[in-house]
Amino acid sequence: MAEPILISSASTIFSSSIPHLSPSHHRLLRHETQPCNTSRKPFSTLTCQASPTTTPTSNTPSKKLKNRYELENLTTWLLKQEQAGHIDAELTIVLSSISLACKQIASLLQRSSIINLTGAQGTMNIQGEDQKKLDVISNELFCNCLRSSGRTGIIASEEEDVPVAVEETNSGNYIVVFDPIDGSANIDIALTTGSIFGIYAPDEQCLVDYDNDTLDEAKEKCVVSVCQPGSNLLAAGYCLYSSSVVFTISIGNGVHGFTLDPAYGEFVLTHEDIKIPKSGRIYSFNEGNFDLWDTKLQNYLNHLRKPGGPAGKPYSGRYIGCLVGEIHRLLLYGGIYGNPQNENAKNGNLRLLYECAPMSYLVEQAGGKAIDGVQRILDIQPEKIHQRTPIYIGSPDEIDKLVSYLV
């Protein structure tokens, strides 16, 4: 067995591990550390000057570096907003219940093929659209979470014929409108889907039995209370189900995005105070309907396809088939999305109350614009629960360019 090597000092470590150094270097490493301004060779050219990029000045405030483990989840963020007076405790509970529904839907979507939740349910909703299995289940999840919160008075959903009054309400009467699964045609092929929601101010207690087909005066009053313009929204948001699950929300003070961390089961703040770019080089229209559109709109799209701009390239065409996915990309990259009226759909295809209004609220909070071709989406007064509207939404410069073609 080899003899152990005794090391008497740190200098021995350096001198034995770096044998190619000269004796003068060994002395320096042992004990002869020289001042920075020494004139001894070979270090006579060294200076003792800090890097300009790291030199603090009295006018430059020191910025605290964020710890990689210093995460802020949705619950903490909502409590901070409550403490700041932006929302009340009742709305905090409602938003938390919606985030719980989104987590449950995300879990089901990830396992849909395994647990046989793909395909059609065999029923149709009030708009005459075939319902997917997850359309029905997701609607139940949303309704159950909102009921159990005890702070919701009325629920209006894409999958419900009429607004539903919540009997379990304790003290809050918030009106919540939502589309539980947006882009449900993408479920079976594992493409992007999402959920959309909007929250309106509390109204008078409205506990109504909707078992009968006819609407009496009390029921009509409840329906009218739901039909509010988007400008009345207190909060709105969406949850994107894709490679990541992203919960994006606005309570009237900007747009913030939270990504679901599967390790903790929590939505973590990842996109703070999102600002949509003033312009973008992406457009999203279902161009299969091109021949059914107005000539002015066709001219606009022909313009986008022509090479132009600083790079001499046309716009990039993207179409996901899911409004949540389209808006999420718009918020981060800019551009324009359009679902216009056509010869077969005079009012467009998207619902005003629980799709267009909440998304328009979000985009405007991020600095964008949303119109129906004539007026601002948030100014439209809904007359029916499932009323449809054309929509053009996106970066402000792109919407202004569109308007110049439509006038």
Describe the structure in your own words:
Homotetramer. This protein is an alpha+beta fold. It has 2 domains: 74-271, Fructose-1,6-Bisphosphatase, subunit A, domain 1 (Fructose-1,6-Bisphosphatase, Chain A, domain 1, 2-Layer Sandwich); 282-406, 3-Layer(aba) Sandwich (D-Maltodextrin-Binding Protein, domain 2), CATH 3.40.190.80. Helices cover 30% and strands 19% of the residues. The protein is built from 10 helices and 17 strands. Strands 4-3-5-6-7-8-9-10 form an 8-stranded mixed β-sheet, with helices on both faces. Helix 3 packs antiparallel against helix 4. The chain is globular.
Integer-rounded radius of gyration: 30 Å
Name given to the CATH homologous superfamily of the largest domain? Fructose-1,6-Bisphosphatase, subunit A, domain 1
Q: What's the mean pLDDT score?
A: 83
Query: At the third CATH level, what is the topology name of the largest domain?
Result: Fructose-1,6-Bisphosphatase, Chain A, domain 1
CATH architecture verdict of the largest domain: 2-Layer Sandwich
User: Strand fraction band?
Assistant: 15-25%
Please count the beta strands (DSSP E, at least 2 residues each).
17
Task: Note the overall shape.
Answer: globular
Strand count, sense and barrel status of the largest sheet are: 8 strands, mixed
Note poorly predicted spans. 3-48, 50-58, 207-211
Helix content: 25-40%
What is the CATH level 1 assignment of the largest domain?
Alpha Beta
